[in-house]
Amino acid sequence: MERVVVSGIGLVTPCGVGTAETFANVVQGKSGIRTITLFDTTGHSTTIAGEVPDFDAETFIPRKKLKEMGRFAHLAVAASMLAWKDAGFSENPPSEEVLETTGTFLGVGLGGLEGLYNQSIKLKESGPSKISPYFIPAVIGNLAAGQVAMALGLKGPSYANTSACASSAHSVGEAFEWIRRGRAPLMLAGGAESTITALGIAGFSAMFALSRRNDAPTEASRPWDEGRDGFVCSEGAGVLVLEAESRALARGATIYAEVTGYGASCDAYHLTKPAPNGEGARRAMKAALEDAKVAPGDVDYVNAHGTSTPHGDVEEARAIVNLFGEHALSGAPDKRLWVSSTKSVMGHLLGGAGGVEAAICALAIRDGVVPPTINLHKQSPEVPLDLVPHEARRRALRHTLSNSFGFGGTNASVMISRYEPNR
């Protein structure tokens, strides 16, 4: 089977528009959580979120095309353009033959929620004749991938994984599968989300899922801290260029890392709660390790799902302890497994989280740095892990694991490893 490498990364997140800016802020622990500006929050119990700062869609998309897309697609196109350029394809595009088999797998959890909300109001107030002809294409989830494919001329497989907060992790894993089986030489993989709308925030608030720490936005996302009171909803996109090793080497590509394993499972337990002891999460991680042929003791870093919810954080920690055992619990600090949640810095990008966090793992490998878990002032006693509190740490990384779990008990884990040509 083909080996699969990461040869381009594009990030558009609450921590910045661009990969370098996002990663620098994540490593520095500089929070991207702010008071919401995208809608009037009067009457809402939660008034904070992770909005993408100073995002100008026209930088990436012709003005006449903007009305065809929801904001989630704007973000997806922007991140994809950045990844495409980073891989060197803006100056030296692939041949038409390669483009005919290049795929676009972008996960989206909820799609164009703002368009659905706004057009519903228009229908009620003005009648059906006033509904935009772009309404349906602007809200359906697969149009993130569709718009990217049209913009870049990618004619291979194109679809959206919709599996709640595991959506883009599944997309990265499935793209990895397509390439290593020789069915495509090149893929754009990741995802996007934009649900910071009156309806989205009200919906999550009704479930008591969101933090209400409105007076201290940058301190609201606090995975594994005893004071955590829910996650912070964020928007953004993360896209990776995945490429067959042979092709990347032939064109002299810069290789960030290698995708070496992918695992997926279902809790089959509850609508929103994780299975006891993180049993489903453990099986997804175990499958990724087995797929990569990596022993638990050889994993250096886990970028955890770590959303800052009371139950989810503890169950994921239990899953990690159950799988990694002594490697997660004991040994000198420079030898044991390190675990952190970059959601502490940027909030939860929902369907876009897995793509962003897989990219963070690749960048961590490149720079030999593990991002911190900020706001971890008093670690929950049920969580006996080294969570890299407050400040980033330097370390040569060989194997990293990116976790994404979603409502309905859907779980995905992706193994990102240092690229070693002669492995």
What is the secondary structure topology, with strand pairs?
Elements: E1 4-13, E2 16-17, H1 19-28, E3 34-35, E4 48-49, H2 63-66, H3 71-86, H4 96-99, E5 103-107, H5 113-126, H6 135-139, H7 143-152, E6 158-159, H8 167-180, E7 186-193, H9 198-206, E8 236-244, H10 245-250, E9 257-266, H11 279-292, E10 301-303, H12 310-324, H13 326-329, E11 338-340, H14 343-346, H15 353-367, E12 369-370, E13 393-394, E14 399-406, E15 410-417
Parallel strand pairs: 5-6, 5-7, 10-11, 10-14
Antiparallel strand pairs: 1-2, 1-8, 1-9, 3-4, 7-8, 9-15, 12-13, 14-15
Describe this structure in words.
The chain has 423 residues and is α/β, with parallel strands linked by helices. The protein has two domains: 4-250, Thiolase/Chalcone synthase (Peroxisomal Thiolase, Chain A, domain 1), CATH 3.40.47.10; 262-417, 3-Layer(aba) Sandwich (Peroxisomal Thiolase, Chain A, domain 1), CATH 3.40.47. Helix content is 34%, strand content 18%. Strands 1, 2, 5, 6, 7, 8, 9, 10, 11, 14 and 15 form an eleven-stranded mixed beta sheet that branches. Strands 3-4 form a two-stranded antiparallel ribbon. A two-stranded antiparallel ribbon has the order 12-13. The two termini are 14 Å apart. The model has no long low-confidence stretch (mean pLDDT 96).
CATH class of the largest domain: Alpha Beta
What string gives the helices and strands in order?
EEHEEHHHEHHHEHEHEHEHEHHEHHEEEE
**CATH architecture classification of the largest domain:** 3-Layer(aba) Sandwich
Category from helices, strands and their pairing: alpha/beta
- Rounded to the nearest angstrom, the radius of gyration is 20 Å
Shape: globular
CATH topology of the largest domain: Peroxisomal Thiolase, Chain A, domain 1
| Residues in helix, % | 25-40%
Provide the residue-averaged pLDDT: 96
Strand content bin: 15-25%
The total strand number stands at 15
Query: Helix segment count?
Result: 15
Count the domains: 2
What's the story with the biggest beta sheet?
Answer: 11 strands, mixed
